[in-house]
Amino acid sequence: MRRLLLALPFALLPLALAHAADEHDHDHEHGSLGAHEHGVGRLNAALDGPTLELELDSPAMNLVGFEHAATTDADKAKVAAARAQLEQPLVLFNLPKAAGCVVENQELESPLFGDKPDADDDHDDDAKDADGDEHHHEHSEVHARYQFTCATPAALKTLDLANIFNRFPATQKIQVQLIGPSGQQGVDVTAKAAALKF
């Protein structure tokens, strides 16, 4: 699922470098633009031939309005509603029907959904106890990964994130790293300018 994104040189992009630097500086995450900032989400997008991959990482606060485990019925309903939205990526990312994209694979992970934090990053448990503790006990993230196969990828001229801002109004900005036919770009997208070009 993540092979394409991992193979692409996201590390060369400034936002990715800033993110990597922040990973080593979690004790001061409120003093600078940390990897986890309320109102700010991150999206990696890669279009390679007919394959479109999207990875959305967001503080849970942006999606449900809280970060603690859902215990009340009201909180559980908010989590269920957010998850239902995330399970409809063709709608959420407003992919044009002309592109003929179908979802091949999707994964949603979050402590809010009852998942163990970063279960796929075994090395983090041993090597970064302090980082792991800070990141997952004080904050909850939602990770969503999608892989699409698009029959007519040329019809994917833009990526429109307006529905994310509409459905999750606490999201103020999404830091996008996009790789497509025209190359790489790093863009901060807001509700007022929610579309970017492949």
From TrEMBL:
Query: What organism does the record attribute this protein to?
Result: Pseudomonas vancouverensis
Signal peptide coordinates: 1-20
InterPro entries reported in the protein's UniProt record: ZrgA-like (IPR021253)
Per the record, the coiled-coil ranges are none
- Renumbered to this chain, the Basic and acidic residues biased-composition regions fall at 125-141
Give the span(s) annotated as Disordered. 111-141
Name of the featured protein = DUF2796 domain-containing protein
- One Pfam match, given by its short name, reads ZrgA
Q: Which domain of life, per UniProt?
A: Bacteria
Q: Which UniProt keywords apply?
A: Signal
